[in-house]
Specification:
The complex is a heterodimer of chains A (568) and B (187). By secondary structure, chain A is mostly helical. Helix content of chain A is 64%, strand content 2%. Chain A has helices spanning 3-31, 41-50, 61-85, 101-112, 122-125, 128-158, 168-193, 222-230, 251-276, 279-306, 309-312, 331-344, 359-371, 380-400, 413-443, 447-450, 458-473, 488-518, 534-565, and strands at 204-207, 213-216, 405-406, 409-410. In chain A, helix 4 (101-112) packs parallel to helix 18 (488-518), helix 9 (251-276) runs parallel beside helix 12 and helix 10 (279-306) crosses helix 12 (331-344). The longest helix of chain A has 32 residues, at 534-565. Chain A starts with a helix and ends with a helix. By secondary structure, chain B is mostly helical. Chain B has 2 domains: 1-38; 40-185, no CATH class. Chain B has helices at residues 2-31, 35-38, 89-105, 132-136, 139-146, 150-159, 176-185; strands at residues 42-45, 48-52, 129-130, 161-162, 173-175. The chains are: A mainly alpha (568), B mainly alpha (187).
Amino acid sequence: MNTEILGVIFIFILAVLIAFPLGKYISKVFKGEKTLLDFFAPLENFFFRISKIDPNKEMDWKQNMKAMLTINLIWFLWAMLILSFQNILFWNPDSIAAMEPTQAFNTAVSFMTNTNLQHYSGETGASYLSQLVVMCFLQFVSAGTGIAVVALLFKGLSNKSGSNLGNFYNLMLKSCTRILLPVAIVVAVILVINGTPMTFEGAQQVITLQGDTVNVARGPVAPMVSIKQLGTNGGGFFGPNSTHPFENPNFITNIVELISILLIPIAMVVALGFYLNRKKFANIILGVMVVGFLALVIPSIYFEMNGNPEIENMGISQPLGSMEGKEVRFGPASSAMWGIATTCTSNGSVNSMHDSSTPLSGMLQMLGMQLNAFFGGVGVGFINKFTFIILAIFISGLMVGRTPELLGKKIEAKEIKLAIIVALMHPLIILTGTAIAAHTWAVTPDASEFLKWLNNPSYHGFSEMFYEFSSSAANNGSGFEGLGDNTPFWNIGTGIAMLLGRFIPIIGPIAIAGFLSAKKFTPESSGSLKIDSGIFGVVLFSVVVILGALLFFPGLALGPIAEYFSMP
Amino acid sequence: MIKNLKPALILSVMTILMFGFAYPLIIFAIAQIMPEKSIGSPVIVKERVVGFENIGQSFTEDNYFNGRPSAVDYNAASTGGSNKGPTNPEYLAQVQERIDTFLVHNPDIKREDVPSELVTASGSGIDPNITPDAAYIQIPRIANVRNIDEDKLKELVRDNIEKKDLGFLGIEKVNVLKLNLALDNLK
């Protein structure tokens, strides 16, 4: 077998194997059980004491959501402040200018919402201070927010009665200190060992062998790259993200980063099984996610390894496959796997340029974000899945004539309505945004001169716009980066898409969890719908795929599918 | 929300100190064990920095092994890919032109032997590597320009091949900068 394919199988299996013990550990952290890392407790308690927060005070869903929104608002303002004045602050050896207001808004929203869409390029647009206290900081706490809200959800599902879901502040901080920080330190050290810089010195001027003078940008790269992967953030230190040899120096770091992308999203589902003591239910959900992931990743690897037919026609050889936008040290197979892993998990870091992927690979990457249900971001991934689980229970209930219920709690009209609103919000944001952009482009006379958005003509140009809104709404952050997106239209448009795409899918499901928690518990009987069966897995998978196919197929047909059929 | 404001504000300050300052500084402290790597592994020849180990640089002249095309001309202060779509006619014309140019500079080479990575731009614009085949194929040209025996060059390339990790992970490749440094050191 081709060793490249063997390599990607190895990476995936390793990710799943590490995710199991981590998932068990995460469940312990959520429950407040004893762990090896309890030595963080004095530090956490000190933080809580001076902020006058009682970490043991349980709150209902509304109080928790208020706390979550308040602290996110503070983070947003902090980010705006630093980005707007980075030119006059310290740790700016390369004299980088302040961000323009709409770009600062977009960047602040982007990192606060765990999206990491970047309408700036790291080495020319952000000072070292911004990279650390805005980007790196938000990469921790936005991931911590995602993990904390899924902990609230788990609590809601496990409650037999009562409306308390836990304490958001407590869970957020512990997610950062007990889950993200230890792993981030390990990954950052591995990166430094393999050649990722960690320095506060500015760019170095070199005179190359051929005699060119080049400035080589560098900086405190390693700590940011590790948390960008682990927290499904994805925002790179440099413009081209993990294609850059400083962010991802060799195949070993490529493996470590790829595993870091998948690790916590997979572990979160494992954690559900341990937390609720319903391992079979968790395995069914994990199985659905793995099947969905493989259905996207296998064809993508096939297309990238096959190369670009247009270049085939020029009579040269493509021994590796499609190489435009790819790095030799990674090759097409692991680049294609990364492309799907990063879009399925809402990570958004890239190790190849998605804009230059072959058409159907580009479509599969978009589908990963549009379906948004296979793994997903840290914490929020399972929350998205939860919406689909509610819908799948409702639909199977209708089909077999049983009362729809989840873990002993009846699912009624209120929950279904909320779930449908949340599930439809995602396509609504993407399709509306893309429609407005495409319309604006179409009606602007001489758009390519005047708007300068699109880097590619025809179907592929449409794909660039479609991808950008899919990425924003899914809080992914990758892009078809040819799009000239640093304009007020894209900065504000995608900013709004990211905000809606972040907070509606958090608040909706947490509200459902709050409602379910307060309901009367009825033990499961022979009349209950069995949710830990393979058949339920099939229904769940079908709900995701049918909903996605119906809503996104027309758009995909106009972009990547049309492009595919235009090729020789 | 108002009564949440003060606790949230103080907790934010503490977490900024912890994850924005303390965490990077911990990694910085650990990185000091590896001083060369922590500043990016510079390559020094005769007390002058001529490049960084992992950062590709422009090699376009006939007397060096050429690297891949770059959308940013190997500008390591503003990196990036071409972001050209696979069916973009302008892009395809550019690839065609690169193939023709390559064949002019390497007249002994048949068109079907030109590897695609030598006519397509990388994602970072500073890809430091090419495959061994892409190096071997340039040997007749370099042998001719530098007046070196072809077998000697073949040996040079062979010595510079970086094998797959554990025998199956990654792509076999050569580092173009290291290869050209070794080339300059021949004879």
